[in-house]
């Protein structure tokens, strides 16, 4: 058994696990019974534990670890940068910070005339996007001058944000408020005012009871009605969406959804924000998931996998939005913004994606993974739906095929269900780690997963699904 590198002389190899369980506040859970698994080292898709196990990380370290653990090219770039400069404020410039900003302006949809702000988390980047959208609309208001005081205005400031019920945009106050995830409820009623939630583009459980494609994309048309009924461009600042719903179900929309939503936002002069925190950097087989739908957002957010092994996120502003701040303060910021070490890691990861042809690999491996999961669907009545794109998949589990009753409802995110049972089975019996708090079985491997590893994962999930089959109504 390998000892951890930070183990003190004479200290048992499990003592750091006990220290962490005693002193660390674990995210999103009760602290009594917190029992983390000790880790000695990581490599590729695998976590080596202090009890001698080798565990496959099937959630890619909170979806942050697209390239797998300890990629040698990224680590080499980080070591080189650490010998030069790790961090300075943005009153100074560093080569990796400047180059990453330019690169993101070039590779994101739309022209190159964009500006980029760097955060440490997707939530921080979402906060910047929300503020910028509101500042942009406020500038429009002031430019109208006295015309803005017309009777139909009632009050002048467009501040409302439209999101969707199954979205998740982070845990800071603004990001949490626009999220529809049940975790928003923990913060209520202290959430940000002016947020409205729309139905999702969720074909398996259409909120309008329609069937695609004979539905006229009513989920998008509803947002058009919402904007009108909430006061149009005079009152609504932005619509924020995940290109593929993440934490609450991995739900790709129909292909017509985003082109129609772009048309709606343009017609109302409302800012369209796309949050790629979970789906960006190759996860779906494109560099950014919104590329599957052929539209250009006004603001794009990315995070998680961007910094690889460093906390790094980015908000990319189109020229239309960034010009708002040419002569007005961009009233947002964070310590460590533009962190040179994180930017160097991000540049190295983008180089790996290109040089190793990872996007094409994700398409190929994602197609194979989808086929294997569809085979499971035919073999297990407890699987109601198989959904995914690239290497971003889920199995939605149901109690009854006729009613489509779910094993975990929206109000049961932290309740013990068969999803919990399967997650524990996979970890304890098959050395595979998936999150236990999702609404289905999470299948989100690092992009460097091999076909042999995919077969191993799917075969193990196949066994675990017998637990759900036995619990069906």
Termini separation (Å)? 45 Å
Global outline: globular
Q: Strand content of the residues, in percent?
A: 15-25%
Give the structural class: alpha/beta
Q: How many separate domains? A: 2
Task: Outline the biggest β-sheet.
Answer: 7 strands, mixed
- Radius of gyration from the alpha-carbon trace, in angstroms: 23 Å
The string of secondary-structure elements, in order, is HEEEHHHEHEHEHEHEEEHHHEEEHEEH
What is the percent of helical residues? 25-40%
The total of beta strands comes to 15
CATH superfamily label of the largest domain? Type I PLP-dependent aspartate aminotransferase-like (Major domain)
| Highest-level CATH class of the largest domain | Alpha Beta
**Uncertain residue segments:** 1-5
Helix count equals 13
CATH topology of the largest domain: Aspartate Aminotransferase, domain 2
For the largest sheet, list the strands in their spatial order: 4-10-9-8-7-5-6
User: Roughly what is the average pLDDT, rounded to an integer?
Assistant: 94
Question: What is the level-2 CATH architecture name of the largest domain?
Answer: 3-Layer(aba) Sandwich
Give a brief outline of the structure.
The chain has 473 residues and is an alpha/beta fold. It is built from 13 helices and 15 strands.
Mind sketching the topology for me?
Elements: H1 15-23, E1 39-43, E2 46-49, E3 54-57, H2 60-63, H3 72-82, H4 95-107, E4 115-119, H5 122-144, E5 160-164, H6 173-178, E6 195-198, H7 218-229, E7 236-241, H8 257-268, E8 271-275, E9 299-302, E10 313-317, H9 319-322, H10 340-355, H11 358-379, E11 383-389, E12 392-400, E13 405-406, H12 418-430, E14 432-433, E15 440-443, H13 451-470
Parallel strand pairs: 3-14, 5-6, 5-7, 7-8, 8-9
Antiparallel strand pairs: 1-2, 2-3, 4-10, 9-10, 11-12, 12-13, 12-15
Helix pairs in contact: 3-10, 4-10, 7-8, 11-13, 12-13
